[in-house]
Amino acid sequence: MRLFFYTALLLNLCMVSAGSVRASQDSATAPSSEKRLTNADVLDLLKSGLSSEIVIAKIAAAPCEFDTTPTALKKLKTDNVPDAVILAMVQAPSVSTQKQTPVLPVPSVEATVKGEPSVPAKVNCSGDIPVSVYAAPYSGSESIEVFRLSCGDRITLLNPSDKESWLKIRVADGREGYISAILVSKEQPPYSESQKQEDAQKANDDFEDCKVRSQNEYDTKMSAVGTMALTPIMRVAASNRLKQNLDAELRECRSEHESRLKAIDDE
């Protein structure tokens, strides 16, 4: 009777918290930035004297990364973890499916006549005052000005990964020099059809991987539930909850996939 009470409490908590947990994943402070609850954390909480009810509430409210393989469940049982807590761990919503940032085009790196990496850029300023280009990174009165550019002039950035405040550039007539990084902006190359197709295929592959991961985790947890001594009512409730979690994760996989394809089409 006590075990059934714990399970009923868990189901109610899951229904209340599942929506808020998923909603918070899209907020500025996503749960992915929090420490995930593990098997070891649960053992520590129980050993500290906290009741099963409190531990179950914590499981329902926190992002979790539990090992619920049959071997891990046997160890939990050996460590005297109550069945209600073990069931809560098995039913905990998965956080393994993370949102993926849409793949957007980035400046391509091409070979220059000298074999150096480069990206197209332009002088980013306003007004009619010319911009000085120096023979070396500026170091005060010793620096030598080699030529000048106007705002909006197109240039080639020869050290695109350089994080220094002075960047090496080349202009159309072959002259080279150094310019202040605050006066340079990289240009976005056209998003080619071949790149679109490649990114769309990557999005499709990630979508399939997301579905497979969700299904595999569901199958693993269902197998784990099958090894537990539960009443028929509890087994049905646990199975239904795991199926709800699976459906929610698959919807998230599809939503992310559709968002990525839309971002690609909009380019």
In short:
The protein has 267 residues and is α+β, with helices and mostly antiparallel strands. It has seven helices and eight strands, in the order αααααββββββββαα.
SS-derived structural category: alpha+beta
| SS element count, helices | 7
Order of helices and strands: HHHHHEEEEEEEEHH
- What is the percent of helical residues? 40-55%
Mean pLDDT: 77
- Beginning-to-end CA distance, first to last residue: 59 Å
Main sheet summary: 6 strands, antiparallel
Number of strands: 8
What is the C-alpha radius of gyration, as a whole number of Å? 28 Å
Oligomer: single chain
- What does the overall shape look like? elongated
Tell me what portion of residues adopts beta-strand conformation.
5-15%
Query: How many domain modules?
Result: 2
As residue ranges, the low-confidence spans are 1-32, 96-115
Question: What are the SSEs and their pairings?
Answer:
Elements: H1 2-24, H2 39-47, H3 52-61, H4 70-78, H5 83-91, E1 110-111, E2 117-123, E3 131-134, E4 145-149, E5 154-157, E6 166-170, E7 176-180, E8 184-186, H6 193-226, H7 232-266
Antiparallel strand pairs: 1-2, 2-5, 2-8, 3-4, 5-6, 6-7
Please explain how this structure is put together.
The protein has helices at 2-24, 39-47, 52-61, 70-78, 83-91, 193-226, 232-266, and strands spanning 110-111, 117-123, 131-134, 145-149, 154-157, 166-170, 176-180, 184-186. With 267 residues, the protein is an alpha+beta fold. It folds into 2 domains: 2-101 and 194-266, no CATH class; 110-186, Roll (SH3 type barrels), CATH 2.30.30. Strands 1, 2, 5, 6, 7 and 8 form a 6-stranded antiparallel beta sheet that branches. A two-stranded antiparallel sheet has the order 3-4. The radius of gyration is 28 Å and the shape is elongated.
